[in-house]
Amino acid sequence: MRARARVPLDERTVRPAMANKKPYTRHDVLFSSGDSSCAAWLYLPTGVTSPPVVILGHGLGATRDMRLDAFAERFAKAGIAAFAFTYRHFGDSGGHPRQLLSIKKQLADWDSAIAWVKARDGLDSTRIAVWGSSFGGGHAITVASRHPELRAAVAQCPFTDGLASALALGPAASVKASPLIARDLAAKVRRREPVMIPLAGAPGSLALMNAPDALPGYRAIVPTGATFRNEVAARVIPSLVTYRPGRAAQNIDFPILFCISNTDTVTPPAQTLRYARTAPRGEIKTYDAGHFDFYLGEPFEALVSDQIEFLTRHLDAAPVTPSPGRAAPHRR
Questions:
Q1: Which residues form the Serine aminopeptidase S33 domain (predicted)?
Q2: In the chain, how many domains are there?
Q3: Domain assignment of residue 49, yes or no
């Protein structure tokens, strides 16, 4: 494959969005992917020349403004550039029809994000990590197995086995969803607007996730004015069930950190632990916080602290000095 020319990091590619007095600057980015483009934020640590980079991708239907910025800010403060993007068909990224979740396209978006980072001056293309949460955590495993040139990966409460997640929902959920899947597939053939299914719903309702903490968990991380929509084209369901990114963990030769919830209602922890233990250089940390608790409060502080330590160690970033007075993380 022909090498891409490196492009200077200037006003033609990014637009500054934060004051220079902060320990980092945030830039708006739009990069090409497939037939459209992805919107992203690039966080650059102030005063750091050629920093390492971590690329962040979110979970099912989620957009980067749903707390990816919180993680990215902390990484940037630790001297690690962070590139948080939104998949095509969601949020303010391109792609039509809207709310279309394609595993193949999302993995291509990851490839395009990696290519964008590699092509930019001012970033160290030899020190790149990927970071994914929930469904994006599963993608991070897949992407890591396909990109041996990366230095590290983080899989946070990762979706590792579609069948295990489907069984956690119960067989009745699959039966209820069948008519929606059929209607949406027919809409695809007829080139009509997709038939939607909620991403998160109340217990017992028809949704991709209907555990008691799913709907309030999503609502807790959606900021005012966000582009998030709680729905997705139903045609994705069969591919979700057969997607088992955890199997690729055994093919990752560089360090990967698995952050696993002991009480996860969306991605069953027992199966995730089995996959994580197959990674040759895997590191595992478990937490008593739930799947949706990872983004806020003390659980967030515990995770981001562990992730900064891991990324600093494996990306050869500047040492991290913990903030005084921070409560000890609740983890096992």
A1: 53-289
A2: 1
A3: yes
